[in-house]
Amino acid sequence: MRRKSNQFTKYELLTGSGVREGIVKCPMNAGYAYHHEGDPHYELRLNLFPRVRFYLSRSRATQDQWLVFSKETEAEPGKTKKLNQPIGVGVSLRQYIEIKIPLLSSVIYMRLFPEYE
Length: 117
Prior knowledge:
This protein is mostly beta strands. Helices cover 0% and strands 56% of the residues. The strands form two sheets. The chain has an eight-stranded antiparallel barrel. Strands 2-3 form a two-stranded antiparallel sheet. β8 (81-92) and β9 form a beta hairpin. The relative contact order is 0.23.
């Protein structure tokens, strides 16, 4: 699926031993999240699975909860894309989104402040 715009913002994904005072303790890079201009969700690319894309979208129930999906589908060309197969959840912290994917038995932190290149 080709996007109309190549403009995106890049966010760092980290693993660590928790967030204390706004800092991830013992951080290790786990990959990157990309937000393409005009998309309502983030595309996650984990170093562990370099060819697999995951998608992070806000929960419809509350503004501080997020859902992780493993599949993006386009019902009809030009229509809004739909996310399927939820595999994890996230919660907003002050400077991070804490993402839990049970299959990985790990917590991933998405930095809310983008990287600029």
